[in-house]
Amino acid sequence: MAHARQLSGDRTVKPRLPVIGVFATGDPRIDGAARARAANIVQIVAESIAGIALPDKTPVPVVWSPLLVDGEKEADVVATRFLQEGVQVLVCVPDTWAFPQLTVISLLSHFPKGTPINLTCGNSGPKPGVVFTHALSGALSQSGTLVHINVGNWDDTGLKPRISEKTIAALVDWCYAAVTHQYLRGKRVVVFGHDSMGMETALAHVIPTRNTFGLEMTRLDMKLFADMVTKKAYKAKELAALRGWIDRHAGKRLELRDEAQSARFNTELAMYLVMRDLLQDLNAVGGGFMNQLEWGSDRRGTPLPVPDVMESLFNSTFDHNGRKPPLPYATEADVQGLLTMLFFTYLAGGNPPLFMDFRKVWEPFEIKAFAQKLKVPAARAEWAERGFVDGNNSGSASFDWAAAPGVSVEKIMANVSFPAADPHYFPGGGNSVTFLTPGGIEGIAGRLAYSAQMNRFALIWDEAVTVELPAKLAKAVCGATDPTWPHTFVLPKYASMAEYKQYAPANHLHMTWDLAPARVQYWLDLAGVISATPWANRPAFVEGVDRPMPLLYVLNGGELATKLR
Q1: What pLDDT is attached to residue 125?
Q2: Beta strands 318-319; 442-451: pairing state
Q3: Are 356 and 393 in contact (CB under 8 A)?
Q4: Rounded to whole angstroms, how far apart are CA atoms 419 and 541?
Q5: Sign of CA dihedral 444, 406, 265, 275
Q6: Contact assessment for residue 393 and residue 306, using Cβ atoms and an 8 Å cutoff
Q7: In the chain, pLDDT over 70 holds for what percent of residues?
Q8: How much helix, strand and coil, in percent to the nearest 5, is found in the chain?
Q9: Which CATH number fits domain 188-563: 3.20.14.10, 2.60.40.10, 3.40.50.300, 3.50.50.60?
Q10: Which of these, 205, 388, 421, lies nearest to 310 by C-alpha position?
Q11: Left, alpha or beta for 301 (phi > 0: left; psi -120 to 50: alpha)?
Q12: What is the pLDDT of residues 423-460, one digit of tens each?
């Protein structure tokens, strides 16, 4: 007699990871040596990408099949085994000719539509894996299936060919994009408060976000959070530990004028502990907070402490308990800013996101006049010749950006200060966070934006680098806006200052370091997000930097036309 099986009633469960499945196709007529070589290539590639990890450094599982997919039965067997292992990302590494419909097309029929698939092959005359790659890419593209190909290099001979570093690097970039796309589907972000002071570029477009990214959005009232802080829904011992950690690192750079202000600062720290536990309880991968007006500056209510420290801690790679993954957290309930930081962080493997106002574009004529007034040399500096953006905002400033990547927590925190919050903006008191980001940090700066006309998200982005100004000039530039907030001077690679001013899609801008453009582009393809780079100096394709355009786009009138279908 058959019986139904009861599942565990336990409320905790480990998140399901998107397993990467690596396999090879083949011609059923090839000999044993060719089969052994193909299986070895599968193993070599699988081991080469096994280091891919989530922001918390959890390794993404990689499985590989020694069985060569050279016919329908083998396609069914490998597909079934992959599905049993939880494979959600497919990598095919053909070394020989194969028949597309009898192999990969049959295998794909077992997987949900839209499952990411990559074809990585060598470029060999004797070994026609590249011939099959183009045949399969063409077949899938003509049926409307997105596939990315990576025509690389490996040895023509030998049972264990050497695969070039460039080939593996391109595949790793694609894998990060595919894992980000798959892992975040079904996840949740939590946003407190209503629309951010009427800033509609920050709106929570719930249904488009769900349909595009598979992300759910839990929206909670800030009274709930305020009540939890008032009820002291945190451990007093941990609050003391967090305060002690801040005191040790900040010293006199923590501005506390009296005991009342010190108590206010403790409330600000308690907010972090309460919010952290709440987000963990809700299994959230990101959060947002309506800092202004309803929390901290509307005098018709009871203004509460500025949450800058809370937001900075979430976006940082450490806190009082040691190293941790950043949990992207947006100030002013900026949901589209939150989503930008979330995807950037996962694509970069856990590098800290930066949230800033698109505060002031300094054009060359302004810089030169300002430098001359201050008697500061600025000749021949790139930031003087092209201009830069002063990015600064109260809240969501990751501590990591106070120093160069890779330095110790001690060195980072030595550059961070906690001035008293501006009473004009924040009558509820508390302390802001301030630092000056050093120059030479390279990454991607950009911003997601939604268009109701297209019912699509677009990412306006550029490669960028932080720049360092002479100390006297930097101080004056910071003073021109707000010296109590963190400042990052950003120089885009391709955009002119005139273009940067005109095409900013919102008042907030975001950046993550060491993020390869190809990763962004692969993810944009998988998510169906429009890539917007309206810079006159941006080439259409830079070899070794950009991802090759999928054949699907070429056949259907370009990337934009295809994504809008």
Answers
A1: 84
A2: unpaired
A3: yes
A4: 45
A5: positive
A6: no
A7: 99
A8: 40, 20, 40
A9: 3.20.14.10
A10: 421
A11: beta
A12: 888 888 899 999 999 999 999 999 999 999 999 999 99
Alpha carbons within 13 angstroms on the beta-carbon side of residue 374 total: 18
Examine the pLDDT at 345 and tell me if it is beyond 80. Answer: yes
Using CB atoms within 10 Å of the CB of residue 244, give its burial: 0 to 12 exposed, 13 to 18 middle, 19+ buried: exposed
Contacts of 171 (CB under 8 A, 6+ apart): 45, 48, 49, 91, 118, 120, 150, 152
Mean pLDDT in residue range 540-562: 96
Binning pLDDT at 50, 70 and 90, where does residue 200 land?
confident
292 or 258, greater pLDDT = 258
CB 130 within 8 A of CB 99: no
Q: Convert 351-362 to b/e letters by CB count within 10 Å (16 or more is b).
A: bbbbbbbbbbbb
How would you classify the pairing of strands 188-192 and 148-151?
unpaired
pLDDT, residue 296, reads 74
- Single out the residue of 448, 396, 133 nearest to residue 290, CA to CA: 396
Report pLDDT for 297: 75
Q: Residue 296's CB: how many other CB atoms inside 10 A?
A: 25
3-class state of residue 425 by DSSP: coil
Q: Is the pLDDT score of 379 beyond 80?
A: no
Confidence of residue 195 (pLDDT cuts 50, 70, 90): low
Number of residues written out for the chain = 565
Q: Are 517 and 444 in contact (CB under 8 A)?
A: yes
Q: What is the pLDDT of residue 240?
A: 98
Does the structure show a pLDDT above 80 at 468?
A: yes
Distance CA 433, CA 329 (A): 15
428 Cβ contact partners less than 8 Å away, ≥ 6 residues apart: 264, 295, 296, 297, 302, 303, 304, 305, 306, 421
Q: What is the pTM of this model?
A: 0.97
Q: CB within 8 A of 108, min separation 6: which ones?
A: 79, 90, 115, 117, 140, 145
Tokens representing 47 are 């081991």
Q: Where are the domains of the chain?
A: 19-183, 188-563
Number of DSSP helices (H) and strands (E) in the chain, helices first: 19, 18
Tracing tokens 């923590």 back to the chain, one arrives at 254
**Per CATH, is 19-183 categorized as 3.40.50.1070?**
yes
